[in-house]
Prior knowledge:
Layout: H1 2-15, E1 28-31, E2 37-42, E3 48-55, E4 59-65, E5 73-83, E6 87-97, E7 102-109, E8 112-120
Antiparallel strand pairs: 1-2, 1-8, 2-3, 3-4, 4-5, 5-6, 6-7, 7-8
Amino acid sequence: MKKLFLFAIILMIAGSACLGSPLKGRNGSLGLDSPFFGWLDHDQSGAVISDLGINLGLGLSYRRYFGPVQTNQFNGYWAAGTVAILIPYLGVGADYVWDSGIYLGCGLIWVVPEIHGGIMF
């Protein structure tokens, strides 16, 4: 497990040598995080700025990036949502997004650390 985590960190650092560009042309997301399945929102230029959808905890999730999502770099976000439809949560974290739309990230939900990943399609 440690080798897989180290490999993921090396990939993120190696990818950051490339210049980032706005992630455009994506309308949905699927991942092992919250939201599990989501619909992406865009700014006026077409760059992804947020993700709204359903999570595996039988609730709703919203993730808002601090700026338009840039590829090949970390993108900070804040998150809010519900679990079991009624129990609220707040979170903060960062996603590293590749040109293909695949992302890997980490964050805090309340004070609990988590690692997640998925694809924006």
